[in-house]
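Q: Could you fold this chain for me?
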Amino acid sequence: MKFDPEFKSAILQLPSKEKDKLLLRLLKRDVILANQLHFELISGDSVQDRRTRMEAHIKQKIEWATNRFSSLDSLLVDIRSLSADITENVKITKDKYGDASLNLLMLNELLKNNNARIAQSNLKKTSAISIYIIARIFKILISIKALHEDYLIEFEAGLNELAQAIEKNPILLNMAINTGVDINWLADAEVPDNIAEIHKEIRSKGLLKRNVKMF
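A: Sure. Below is the predicted structure, expressed as structure tokens.
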């Protein structure tokens, strides 16, 4: 939302007490902003501290979701919840590296514990979680590409692990092929310069929608 200069000037000229009251009212309505300020002003945590704790949280929650598994749909609900935790952490810490690394860890932990379940289910049951995984792969690759190129080497092992998991799962492999994901991007840790445009085009074709028929 853009504010005109006159409005900005009027806000800045408010008495300090009035501005303080307005700020506190706004923080009550914007939890993310409140948590950002808490993190930056008084938490004492570094971005790395928060990222490390989130890594442990991801592993614990994947293990919990795996142990309580009842269906692929319920597993997807748990993964989406975990994804929301990652997104919130990234917004609070502004951790662009963590946006890529934490999502990559989540997918690798998910497949390490549940790849066989996905591979052994029928296409109808796997469609939603498979499309979700592919969509996350695009997000990860776009996030990596947005970082300085020197960081790419730090993602090689994780991307290769993800490639190997997908290659072991015919359903995911076919889904990747049909949605335009080249597994070599992962196996070789070579992210196309135009990955964002590739993703945009694929989305425009409706290939990442839950109910799309891929086979």
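A (continued): The chain has a mean pLDDT of 91.
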